[in-house]
Amino acid sequence: MLGFKLVHRMIFFELVKVFLLALAGLTSILLLAGLVAEATQHGLGPSQILEAIPLLLPNMLPYTLPTTTLFATCIVYGRLAADNEVLAIKAAGVHIGHVMWPAVLLGLFTTAVTAALFVDIIPSTHFQLRNQIFANIEDYLYGMLRREGRIQHPQINYTIYVERVEGKVLRNALFLRRDAKTKQYDIIASAQEAKLRVDVDKKLIWVHMYNCDIVTNGQDNGHVEDKAWPVELPPQFEAGDKFRATDMTWLELDEFRQRLVDERNKMQLDIAVILSKYHNSRPPQLVLDHLRNLRNVVAMKTNQIAGIDTEVQMRPALALGCLCFVLIGCPVGIWFSKSDYLSAFITCFLPIIVIYYPLMLSGINLAKSRQVPAIAGLWTANALMLVIGMTLFRRLARN
After folding, report:
1. Claim to verify: residue 48 and residue 146 sit in the same structural domain
2. What is the pLDDT of residues 230-268, one digit of tens each?
3. SS in 3 state form for the chain?
4. How far apart are CA 321 and CA 112, in angstroms?
5. CA separation, residue 65 to residues 20, 27, 111, 378 (Å)
6. What pLDDT, in 10s, does the model give residues 273-317?
7. Which domain holds residue 161?
8. Residue 276 placed within a domain
């Protein structure tokens, strides 16, 4: 019995060692890829990239923890089988299931860690990361102008073009303001040099233009040495409240869902009252328009509730993937008896990429669009992995 406990400890420590090495390597690669994507998309500077690292890291773990758990399981049990240690254990009369306990323990531990991260840390850091990108709006705007050469959005009534950016100076800047009624540009100003200043409190961007030529409503208004144009801050540049399910902690999800349900029920009651009032007559056009707007809002609230239900099911489903991968990794590693990293990686990981994650992503999309219940959409992939894992284990035990 003492020797068997020693074997358990040996396997578990080997699993932990390979797991930690693989976790550090894979997380570093994904973190680097995530930082490059964020820096490219939002034009982040070096200081902003360094500040984003601790916020981006927790969001990588739900995907690296299951993968590295599977990888470590296949590696360690493949080595045991390749060295005939599994055969020796079975020859000693020990059931093969006892050999899997260290891997199951690792799977339970990583599942618990992933689930705990989803309670608060991951949604909180995701929200902070999204808002931190816009914390220094002025630097962000300059970064956008360096990267794209313009500030343009369909929801704002102005456009800014620049030829190049030198520090805080915009060279050969062009400012165009669109009239809200005619949708035509009523002011066009060009300047050899310009600067931006952001007033966060008033939600304004001041565009200071020097040596500026101005055209208003198609008429040349002449030349001015210094002109400052106040324009509204684009709404997507503001650090807003939590309205995405991915940004909410577990408690906030429940509170937000209840608020959405109450608002939807109230609107459905309003619709029922209006319909009962005009039960025997056709409502006026104004009332019909109001009913259509209420129904649209009810549909929007229903979609938001479906998104929250999907998020509630997705978090534990992704966490349980760690344990599901373990149940597959053990028999696969023992069967193939591969002691090298590359063979084990290809053997265990490719089926997961081809089956598990596409099935999980499809379930998420179907649940959000209310085509399938959230429970069915999010737990099908795990259920399939469990069935495959148990089938493989039974075949391994018979052989």
Report:
1. no
2. 877 765 555 555 667 888 888 889 999 999 999 999 989
3. CHHHHHHHHHHHHHHHHHHHHHHHHHHHHHHHHHHHHHHHHHCCCHHHHHHHHHHHHHHHHHHHHHHHHHHHHHHHHHHHHHCCHHHHHHHCCCCHHHHCHHHHHHHHHHHHHHHHHHHCHHHHHHHHHHHHCCCCHHHHHHHHHHHHCEECCCCCCEEEECCEEECCEEEEEEEEEECCCCCCEEEEEEEEEEEEEEECCCCEEEEEEEEEEEEECCEEEEEEEEEEEEEECCHHHCCCCCCCHHHCCHHHHHHHHHHHHHHHHHHHHHHHHHHHHCCCCCCCHHHHHHHHHHHHHHHHHHHHHHHHHHHHHHHHHHHHHHHHHHHHHHHHHHHHCCCCHHHHHHHHHHHHHHHHHHHHHHHHHHHHCCCCCHHHHHHHHHHHHHHHHHHHHHHHHHC
4. 11
5. 10, 9, 8, 18
6. 888 888 777 878 888 888 888 888 898 889 989 999 999 999 999
7. 137-237
8. no
**If you search the block for the tokens 């390749």, which residue do you land on?**
82
* 97 plus 25 within the same structural domain: yes
Tell me how far apart the terminal alpha carbons of the chain are, to the nearest angstrom.
Answer: 24
The count of domains in the chain is 2
Contacting residues for 390 by C-beta, under 8 A, at least 6 apart: 327
Q: Which residue has the tokens 């199951």?
A: 104
Question: Which residues are CB-contacts of 205 (< 8 A; sequence separation ≥ 6)?
Answer: 141, 196, 197, 198, 199, 230, 231, 232, 233
Point out the domain boundary residue: 206, 237, 268: 237
Cα angle for residues 360, 261, 304 (degrees, 5° grid): 40
Taking the whole predicted model, whether its pTM rises above 0.85 is answered as: no
Separation of alpha carbons 4 and 102, rounded Å? 12
Same-domain check for residues 125 and 165: no
